[in-house]
Specification:
182 residues, alpha/beta, seven-stranded parallel sheet, 30% helix, 18% strand
Length: 182
């Protein structure tokens, strides 16, 4: 990688052999990385990896989770992620045990450039819906998957205020009914 200083896009998907140590090396070797996909790299301690990601200077698209190594320490994780949040166009968070509705709300309050937000199997609800509605009215793509706490009123809140939304994906949210679309 040391000869790949011009690398701007890297996807390491479904690789159990990658750990957070690789992220530290990458931040030194290719600090201008703008696209990073770590989906299903289950051996990564994301608490440490996201801390190491602070050294990326131009990150615009980030795909992370799930991770099975350690439970997310939400305060540390969000604090480390916050340096990138205002510049991200795409953020996908999947099955990050330890993150809750309040954490997602905090992230979204600062995600002014976000166009594509995907969250799966993290219990999100009214706080995240409120942050989406008030902070991200220009969001284009929204994917909400696997929340037991997301309800019809949350969906109405989002749909009523996000007039630029062109793609909405709802899956495995058992508390959404016909009333959410009325």
């Amino acid at each position: 990688m040391s000869r790949s200083k011009n690398l701007i896009s890297l996807g390491i998907i479904k690789n159990p052999n990658i750990s957070h140590e690789s992220i530290l090396y990458l931040t030194a070797a290719v600090p201008r990385l703008s696209f990073l996909d770590l989906r299903e790299c289950t051996n990564i301690d994301l608490n440490v990896a996201v801390k190491n990601m602070e050294h990326f200077t131009e990150l615009k698209e980030l795909y992370i989770g799930p991770a099975s190594v350690a439970r997310i320490k939400s305060d540390e994780f969000i604090s480390s992620l916050m340096g990138h949040i205002p510049d991200l166009f795409v953020l996908h968070l999947s099955q990050l045990s330890g993150l809750v509705d309040d954490d997602l709300c905090e992230v979204l309050k600062h995600a002014v450039a976000l166009h594509d937000f995907y969250v799966s199997f993290i219990d999100f609800g009214w706080k995240m819906a409120g942050a989406l509605s008030s902070c991200l009215p220009n969001l284009i793509k929204l994917s909400l998957v696997g929340s037991k706490t997301f309800v019809d009123a949350d969906l109405r809140c989002i749909c009523g205020s996000m007039t630029n939304l062109s793609v909405l994906i709802l899956a495995a949210c058992p508390r959404i009914s016909d009333a959410g679309f009325s």
